[in-house]
Amino acid sequence: MSEIDKNTQPLLEITGLKKHYPIEAGIAKKQVGLVKAVDDVTLSIRRNEVLGVVGESGCGKTTLGRTILRIIEPTEGSIKFHFDGKEIDFISLDKKALRGMRRHIQMIFQNPYTSLNPRMTIFDIVAEPMRLAGDYTEDEISDRVRDLIGKVGLEVKHLNRYPHAFSGGQRQRIGIARALALGPRFVVADEAVSALDVSIQAQILNLLQELKEEYDLTYMFIAHNLSVVEHISDRVCVMYLGRVAELSETEELFYHPMHPYTEALLSAIPVADPTVKNERIVMPGEVGNAANLPSGCCFHPRCRYAQECCRKECPPLREAAPGHFVACHFADSLKLNGIGELKIKN
Ligand code: SF4
């Protein structure tokens, strides 16, 4: 069964998306292997939804976000956007059409210290996408920059300053204003709060939420931390070694995880209640090697529930409960601990 909700036309449909990098060796550069950074990902994102994408470093989430925007060209698969009743086959767009689409799809980058040009004023940083688009007058650009800078919580008096004069949180606000300059519909936020202090993270998450309502935005929100994703996401997609391990509504995922990897990630979230005994599940080893995927279920070397068949057969992503997709042979029989359950028990 397809993951796509038939009653709500999604903004974005991704089918069988792959990004493989060849490994070459020798003078003849003979291909000796493949790094499967994104491997057969199928999912959809609804209009005005926030889809959180989580997993440890190296699980393919950033490559997925960049491949969806064609910052990195995919190896295989289909990406379709639905705007104004039209279906846009994003993979087949030529360079000119792709430039036209860029106004609708934007990215907020992880590091606010390196993503802003230190030689440009804040005004020019936010104005640059509109100048490059070429269809705004300088008066229109000036009005829009002033409006956006206020919407992200900065002041017009800041516009003539340079990035070094701002804190990390303020720089991320500037990055957000720039990402919204052309009025996008879909925004990939790649670890947008990871480099910030916890108190600032909450402010930026609230800002993203407010801007989503104001501008009718749809987000893919990439993070390595489930607790960050919880606050902003309607649904969460957990990735492991380039594949989707689990995908469901946020509350369902936190209360009733069905994949052992999700359970382990949840166990690492500190619980505020000191009376709750939250057993941290320590997964042995690191994320596997995408150039040499384990046989069968690629999570089996780290899974405490692994059985013989897990080493031989790769579990497909399937709908184990309504709207809850999981890639595990034993998803129906394992009774996994969710963080919500721990709070309720006490
Ligand atoms: Fe663990 Fe087996 Fe499920 Fe993979 S299929 S997550 S190894 S129990």
Fold and architecture overview:
By secondary structure, this protein is of the alpha/beta class. The chain has a domain of 92 residues. It is built from 10 helices and 12 strands. The chain has an 8-stranded mixed sheet with strand order 6-7-8-3-9-10-12-11, sandwiched between helices. The chain has a 4-stranded antiparallel sheet with strand order 2-1-4-5. Helix 3 crosses helix 4 and helix 5 packs parallel to helix 6. The longest helix is centred in the middle third of the chain and has 18 residues. The N terminus and C terminus are likely disordered.
Bound small molecules, by name, code or SMILES, are:
iron/sulfur cluster
| DSSP summary, beta strand count | 12
Straight-line distance between termini? 38 Å
Decide which structural class fits the backbone: alpha/beta
Summarize the model shown.
The chain is of the alpha/beta class and 346 residues long.
Short descriptors:
binds iron/sulfur cluster; alpha/beta; 4-stranded antiparallel sheet
List the helices and strands and how they pair.
Layout: E1 10-25, E2 30-46, E3 50-54, H1 61-68, E4 76-83, E5 86-89, H2 95-101, E6 105-108, H3 122-133, H4 138-151, H5 168-179, E7 186-190, H6 198-215, E8 218-223, H7 226-232, E9 235-240, E10 243-249, H8 250-255, H9 260-267, E11 318-321, E12 324-326, H10 339-345
Parallel strand pairs: 3-8, 3-9, 6-7, 7-8
Antiparallel strand pairs: 1-2, 1-4, 4-5, 9-10, 10-12, 11-12
The structure holds iron/sulfur cluster.
